[in-house]
Structures are given as structure tokens and as C-alpha cells.
Amino acid sequence: MLLISTDPASKLDEVLGVAFGTTPTAVPGVPNLKAMNIDPEASAKAYRESMVAPYRGVLPDAAVASMEEQFSGSCTLEIAAFDEFARLLGGPGTKADFDHVLFDTAPTGHTLPLLSLPSAWDGFLSKNTTGTSCLGPLAGLQAQHRPRVVMALQPEGEIGADVRHLDPFFRVEGGTGEAVRDGGRAAVRAGFAVLVPAGTDHNTLDTGSVPLKLHTICAPPNHRDGVIRHTRAEAEAEADDEPVDGTTTEP
Q: Are 134 and 70 in contact, with CB atoms under 8 Å apart?
């Protein structure tokens, strides 16, 4: 059995006489029992860092500062705690190592909001489509299906100038190129990510000698699922041949 405390004022250490951390620790004198604490503050800090760190040195400092501000709210603490809660409750490692998982929670006033968080966020996102939250821009979160488009630009090729009303995300998987946003240019290479704010005139160009491989994520869907086009000319010729019907390969 695994005993986990999600209480910010956990008393497991005092009750069981063991200094518990954030990993399962055996309880002396009690066979087959391990226990641990979830530290909400540490979980929130790790969660914030995991969200922001990939963009440091990639996006402008002002954009990174804006992300850090969005993740500084109290709801980030709740989300991070629930993330740990869900991981421990249903993770494959927990299932393989323990027959039972018992949670020592905080008083009712804390536990009930924690358990209702998914449905609360679902309702919030369905009613709010603008602004931001600690989960990110609400306009992008509202869409339930965010398609991934994979492409390869030939040397000296480009995607083509475009303006979206939501925030497209680009990640470069191979090659070298240039990202253009409202006339500003930045060199990109494998491992780089670019977030384009809504309403920004943007383009991506291959400036190297090999294909620039990248994928984009944007909502709502504006490409039919499973469609493969081998050239830009083919894509442009068939761009409006059939409307997006909402069907997806994955939910």
C-alpha cells in the first residue's frame, strides 16, 4: 500500500515517525507500507519551470516574462497539485508497485475544490474565449482539437506570409531557417520553438542547404485530418477543395 498526503500541513512524519519526502519511503515496522508527501509549493515551482524553461533564449525576454506572470497565480498551485495527484493515482509505476493507494487529504474545504478542478476548468473554458489564464491564452485552450501539421521546406523555400486570429506554435525539427514576425527576423535551427501571437504577420523560410523540417500546432483546425500534400503548389491548389468537418484521428 502507498499512503500519500496532499495536505500542505501534513502530519504523516509525526504520526509515523519517519521524515517523508516526495518519493515513496518504507515505514519501519509496517510490512508492505510506503508513504510520501506531495509538496504543493515545490510541485508548482517545478510545473512553472517545465512550462517556461523551453522558451528561455528562444522567445524575447518580454514574452518569457509574460509567461512567468501567467503562471504565478494561485491556480497554478492547484493545477500542479492535481497533476501530481493524477500521476500518482493512475501512473503505471504506481499501478505496478502497489495494490492500494490511500490519500491523506487536507480538510474538506481544500479537498473538494481539488477533486472538482477538471470539471470547473471545463466549464470555465467553455464560457471564456479571450484573455489569459495560468493555463495559457484562453483562445487557444478553448479549442478541443489542436491539429499538428508536419512539413518540410526546400532550400530557399517558405511557408508563405500569413496572419492567424489565434496563436500558432512552430517547432523546428531539422535544418536551418528564419522566422519572420511583423517584419522582425530571427534565425532558427533544430530544437528552436516559435510562438506567434494572434494577429501577427508571420512567415518561415528555409535559409540552409537542406530541407527545413518543422511542425506547427494551431487551433481551431483548418486542415482536414490525414491529408498529405507533397508540394506547396499542391497544397495551395487544394486548399479550399473540401471544408474541415471536425473529424480527427485522435481525440
A: yes
Rounded Cα distance between 53 and 176, Å, is 22
Question: Are the C-beta atoms of residues 195 and 188 closer than 8 Å to each other?
Answer: no
CA distances from 171 to 1, 64, 245 (A): 42, 17, 26
Distance CA 157, CA 204 (A): 9
Residue-level pLDDT at 144: 42
In the chain, the amino acid numbered 246 is G
CB proximity list for 57: less than 8 A, separation 6 or greater:
none
Residue 43, judged by CB atoms within 10 A of its CB (0-12, 13-18, 19+), counts as buried
34: nearest Cα among 81, 115, 99, 90: 99
What Cα–Cα distance (Å) separates residue 57 from each residue in 65, 193, 204, 217? 12, 10, 19, 21
Could you tell me which of 153, 149, 150, 151 has the C-alpha nearest to residue 208?
Answer: 153
State the Cα–Cα distance between residues 78 and 44, nearest whole angstrom: 8
Average confidence (pLDDT) per 10 residues, the chain, 251 residues: 80 86 88 86 82 81 82 71 70 76 69 61 57 48 57 90 79 91 88 80 93 77 65 66 54 46
Question: Is the bond preceding residue 220 a cis peptide, omega within 30 degrees?
Answer: yes
CA nearest 194: which of 208, 165, 212, 215? Answer: 215
